[in-house]
Design goal:
Two copies of one chain form a homodimer. Chain A is built from 18 helices and 17 strands. Chain A is elongated. By secondary structure, chain A is of the alpha/beta class. In chain A, the strands form three sheets. An eight-stranded parallel beta sheet of chain A has the order 10-9-8-17-16-15-14-13. In chain A, strands 1, 2, 3, 4, 5, 6 and 7 form a seven-stranded mixed beta sheet that branches. A two-stranded antiparallel ribbon of chain A has the order 11-12. Chains A and B meet through α1, α4, α5, α7 and α16 of A and α1, α4, α5, α7 and α16 of B.
Chain lengths: 534, 534
């Protein structure tokens, strides 16, 4: 019967060749490293003998739990968790066996216990040759990226044996900020969904989780200082992130070299805030009387700023990242216009009828608060467009439509760092392989000098939550976001869409094997699909 | 602490009111029954006491395992499986308690052990009043539909107690054929995905699983007569439906009143067939020599028809439904044109250069075979368009683009039954609430007399598999297909989109509770969402 099975297998493999993508000469690497040489020479790996170790001379050792965790995690990704357990122990050593991967942190401070930041060094060198592979990185962040790459180099042959090609890789990201935005306000996302997304981000070398945590629809962030915000503003008692949950997300992200940047978007997008914080929103008027509905944050009351300062102080403590995203997008002036107290306030301040000035007045105060708390700010592009005085280091996130190149030119012309999100709104779904559209974007393709280009710190793939919750998040985001991941990590000249298709198809199957239900690119199958398709 | 929890709950409920849909006066019924009266009077249900029973005078009893299974299944859907286990047993009987649902099959032959068919009677009457509800149906098929409706009437109050409003419902479907097409060739769908889809179909009163089981890309159907078809033509040994699998799907469907109609699409869409069946496909020519590639089925060889007859004989045995779908769509003539033997054959037959005539020649032979095997055929519209002689009872499935109304007119004008699929290709995704588009289709809105309208037997929501596999199937199909479900079941005048939104939002949450990961319609949440969002 065994012979029959092998025959079946061979025939099935041949049968599938028509729809299965060709192999890329870069194997299934995603995103593609900056420089790589893969030799045809193969080394075997024996799961029972292979080890990932701290190499001699490394500034990190067994005390570095970030690496200890990563070693175990990647061992699991490489070999799976159970199927090799029954392998024959008496098998003789191969003549060309890779016995270990030695990880060496070369900098005196490995940053093992720190949080990643925009300045973190993610570069690494990986040399795979007999009898041991060596992964060198200045900091643990580069080691994490190198472990991912190493795991992507290991393959199984037709008999289920593990092998790796001798390789020489030198790698570092093209952009420092490579983000995924998830929106937990329009739909609550259970912790499990967020954690799986962090796994997927690590598989694609993303390093920023932009947590659009609250918005008009709900306020799931459980504040210590203002517990009523979520008590009143969350969808339900079930739909809340406790301080423990938030801590868990930040820790889980850190272990994968991922920053967590929370967004507390004001003065618009704040309907849910008003439920738990009295007088925070502007009362709208219908003629001479309050209509009972509320508009954006009320910018004319001192209590507004007292509250924001206290909340920002808490946020500073809870979220370790250097940056806080302050939003500032899509402020509707209708309600401010209707309110006589707002009009009076504007007259006093000499704002004439410019509500943009009023908005700027508010945002500048918030930006100053963040500055005074020794944090830096990210804002959506309107804040820049409205002429708000920004700190030089305030990052402007460009999100609007098709004119984003012009916006990038203007933002960087003024000397501000920029993040590009506009072409990567992944909630806008369409039929077919739209990953190609995301892949073909060149972030630096705008008019500007070299200094301007250097101000583009990166980009973000955004999955807004109007139509997304735990039921469809993962397959909607992955592998479409992977296209953005390679664009932001790999060199500018990595643009071969056919080669990308071949590698991404394999990469998607690998994500599936690792528990991320990434959807297919096109017709075909994954050889390791289990009975339930995951 | 309990008081605090209740306060939290109340506040959260108020907080959510802005984004949560309003309650429909029809509760969460989906699809809406033909005639219903819901009284404000509430009856309580106690899970430990409530029973679903065979009523006296029913022609079905405990021997009818279809109903026994359905009773247990719906008991589970209504009360959940565990949370009420700890309820206080000593609670006094309520004055207005519903103790049971009595199910009475009124026809002498309950059809309990039969398969559903296009003629099956799915009508039922449901009367809910103290102390017992009565569900009357002529056949078990109506009882299944009524059980679903009954389960949709039961709600939980704020304290977790179950109640139902006194109601009087009389219901039957508007169209006899209400189908979902799944494509297991472009991507293999694991059994579990198919079974979950059958559950969801039952929740939406669909009654036909159109199983597009094989196509160009792969041949997962494991034939008993021709095992090489899947041995060579499936993606892999893993990606095959064994006879046991097929049997399981058919049985599982039958227990839910769902027909399984397999589609074996020829003469196009057959690339994968050619791998396991020598000489079945036409060799294409490059000038005077075979190019090595193959086109549609080779219609000029007797062996083609011998093979098809044997295969159809097997299909007749394996699939109990009265109908077989024979495909017949999208035949590319390029290869036939290139082949000199085909040209010779056409000259002999006097086909001139009409490849349409050649296609018709082939299809007519296949249709005759099916007829001779005492089965009926369904074909895609091209077969009709090409002027093929059809049996009067051959159903034409209309799938092409925007001119489907004209096609419906023509098909029914010729006296053929029709199924409408064109406006319901759910694989064509787009941003936003496209369910409204599907919901707004009126299948009988074409020019024709009453007799023509009566020839429209129903419709199908189609989820072709180019971009769909187990990772994204369920949230992509549900609840978008639910819109089609109501259109095909409910009365023509059920078109209030706002009311539909309110009911469908609740219905989607109910599907979630029952294990179907249906995606959200829009912002909001389900009160019973668990920690992992399902």
């Amino acid at each position: 019967m065994e012979l029959l099975r092998v025959l079946w297998w061979v025939s099935a493999t041949l049968a599938a060749s028509a729809t299965v993508p060709e192999s890329s000469r870069f194997g299934a690497l995603w995103p593609l490293p900056r420089s790589l040489h893969i030799s045809p020479a193969r080394l075997q790996l024996a799961p029972k003998r292979f080890q990932i170790l701290h190499g001699s001379g490394s500034s990190a050792g067994p005390r570095c739990s970030l690496l200890q965790d990563a070693f175990r995690r990647y061992y699991g990704y490489i070999f799976g968790y159970s199927k090799w357990q029954n392998h024959d122990e008496k098998q003789p050593l191969s003549e060309t066996e890779l016995f270990s991967l030695q990880v060496i942190i070369t900098s005196e401070d490995s940053e093992c216990d720190k949080y990643p930041g925009v300045e973190s060094d993610e570069s690494y060198q990986l040399q795979v040759s007999e009898p041991t592979a060596v992964l060198k990185a200045s900091k643990v962040w580069g080691a994490l990226r190198g472990l991912e790459t190493f795991s992507q180099l290991v393959n199984e042959d037709d008999y289920g044996s593990f092998f790796i090609n001798e390789s020489d890789i030198s790698d570092s990201p093209r952009f420092a900020h490579r983000g995924i935005l998830l929106d937990t306000s329009r739909h609550f996302l259970p912790l499990k969904s967020i954690l799986i997304n962090l796994d997927a981000m690590a598989f694609n070398k993303f390093n920023v989780f932009h947590w659009h945590i609250v918005d008009d629809q709900s306020f799931p962030y459980q504040s210590i200082t203002f517990p009523e915000l979520s008590a009143q503003g969350a969808y339900s008692y079930n739909h809340v992130y406790t301080p423990t949950d938030v801590r868990l997300v930040i820790d889980y992200a850190r272990l994968r070299g991922i920053r967590v940047i929370p967004e507390f978007d004001t003065p618009g997008h704040t309907e849910s805030w008003g439920k738990g914080q009295k007088d925070f929103l502007t009362p709208c008027y219908n003629g001479k009387h309050p209509s009972g509905s509320y508009g954006p944050v009320n910018p004319i009351l001192n209590t507004t700023y007292d509250f924001m300062l206290q909340l920002l102080k808490e946020i500073r403590t809870v979220f370790p990242d250097e940056y806080i995203h302050l939003g500032g997008d899509e402020v509707d002036f209708t309600c401010w216009r209707s309110n006589p107290d707002v009009s009076e306030f504007m007259k006093e301040r000499g704002f004439s009828h410019s509500y943009t000035k009023l908005e700027s007045y508010y945002i500048e105060k918030i930006l100053d608060m963040v500055s005074s708390l020794n944090k830096k700010s990210i804002v959506w592009q309107e804040v820049f467009d409205n002429g708000v005085q920004l700190q030089p280091d305030t990052i402007v996130e460009v999100w609007m439509g098709t004119l984003y190149k012009e916006e990038l030119r203007r933002v960087t012309k003024e000397g501000h760092p920029a993040i590009l999100a506009a072409p990567w709104y992944l909630d806008y779904i369409s039929y077919g392989q739209d990953w190609k559209k995301y892949y073909s974007v060149e972030p630096l393709d705008f008019l500007g000098c070299r200094a301007q280009k250097e101000l583009v710190v990166g980009g973000e793939a955004c999955l807004w939550g109007e139509y997304v919750d735990a039921t469809n998040l993962t397959p909607r985001l992955w592998p479409r976001a992977s296209a953005v991941g390679e664009r932001l990590w790999s060199s500018k000249n990595v643009t071969d869409i056919a080669d990308a298709y071949n590698r991404l198809t394999e990469h998607r199957c690998r994500m599936l094997r690792r528990g991320v239900a990434a959807e297919p690119l096109f017709v075909g199958y994954c050889s390791n699909e289990t009975g339930d398709g995951t």
